[in-house]
Amino acid sequence: MAKDIDWDKLTFSLTPTDTMYVAETTGDEPWMPGDLRPYGNISISPAAGVLNYGQGLFEGMKAYRTARDRVVFFRPDENARRMQRGADRLKMPPVPESIFIDAVEQVVQANIDWVPPMGRGAMYVRPLLMGSGPVLGVSPAPSYSFMIYVTPVGPYFKGGMRAIELLISDEFHRAAPGGSGGVKAIGNYAPGMMPSKMAKAQGYAEVIYLDARTSTYIEEVGAANFFCIKDKVLYTPELTGTILPGITRDSIIALARHMGYEVVEEKVSAEFAMSADEAFCCGTAAVISPIGSITHGDNKVTYGDGTPGTITTTLYDKLTGIQNETEEDIFGWLHEIPL
Ligand code: PLP
Ligand code: COI
User: Is 9 designated active site?
Assistant: First the structure.
């Protein structure tokens, strides 16, 4: 039974669904598959490691309804592995890939009526891994919870494929060398809220962060990776440990190379990016969002006429075409969810 919601009005916001998934373990026992339960509040100790010391990770992935009348994930094994790398970094027990994949499949199956029709949004799947047991000293929690909830979503930035205006921050950084910027630690996100709100109050869609060491090179756009295109060559910041290794980023690199474009992964200075022909940011939530302008201090650069660039649009069509199966899945990225 399709849900009574106006799919065309979906934004990137929470619509509570029916069912969530929960698995629990102590730090010493191996993970066992969890179970489905009604979506709702959880009970947690006030001394939980996640509440006191931020011992927590999240993931973000989407399930798409496709032209072949299937529901698919896009490279879910990559989300599973990224969460494992994050678990290692935050001293949590990694969830085995088979349990992760089985769990995300189960939650989508249980909420299947909430998956939007093809091309009108997607089901956003949010796995969480946290130190849920009580601990007072700064050390790993005695027990852990792996939870997943889902929600139908529309575009991350207002207006969908409309080009966005961005502001480079000279004052704030997202991640420092040796820190947690390269994993999806929950603690990476709250410090970005104030800079992001400040930029939005000035009419920008998001902040661009520069590297913490020299404030010279572009790292990320809020919670999305950055690309620019100059003379038909794509440039994206190399992964130095302070940048989240985006699965969309990795997919765009592979797709662009397959389409015959040169892709360079290296340090991308703000100055260079502002001399490029096109720019966009990308992520599961952001998909490919064209950048219309970048402002840095008194300097504002508009790309072309401020509308999505040609190569950006071609890549968007190719990526979303694979995800909704109007294009061939040449890399074997889709994972069918049995219904
Ligand atoms: N950068 C940050 C900080 C993110 O939180 C995300 C979202 O997951 C991304 C980039 C994009 O990664 P992905 O393409 O895997 O969604
Ligand atoms: C994603 O793209 O999935 C993200 O995690 C970005 C944001 C919603 C945190």
Answer: no
User: Candidates 156, 184, 188, 282: which one to mutate for ligand 2, based on the most atoms within 8 Å of Cβ?
Assistant: 156
CA 157 to ligand 2 center in whole angstroms = 12
What per-residue confidence (pLDDT) applies to 156?
A: 83
Q: What is the pLDDT of residues 265-276, one digit of tens each?
A: 999 999 999 999
Residue 29 C-alpha to ligand 2 middle, in angstroms? 30
Per-residue model confidence as pLDDT tens digits over 206-258: 999 999 999 999 999 999 999 999 999 999 999 999 999 999 999 999 999 99
Which neighbouring-strand residues pair with 280?
Answer: 227, 290
Residue-number span of the structural domain to which 208 is assigned? 164-324
Give the C-alpha separation, 170 to 242, whole Å: 17
Residues 57 and 183 sit within 8 Å (Cβ to Cβ): yes
pLDDT tens figures, 175-202: 999 999 999 999 999 999 999 999 999 9
Final residue in a domain of this structure, among 92, 125, 153: 153
Domain boundary among 153, 183, 209: 153
- In angstroms, rounded to a whole number, what is the distance separating the alpha carbons of residues 90 and 85? 9
| DSSP H or E segment with residue 327 | none
Which atom in ligand 1 lies closest to the alpha carbon of residue 184? 5
Catalytic, out of 3, 62, 184, 232: 184
Q: What is the pLDDT of residue 2?
A: 63
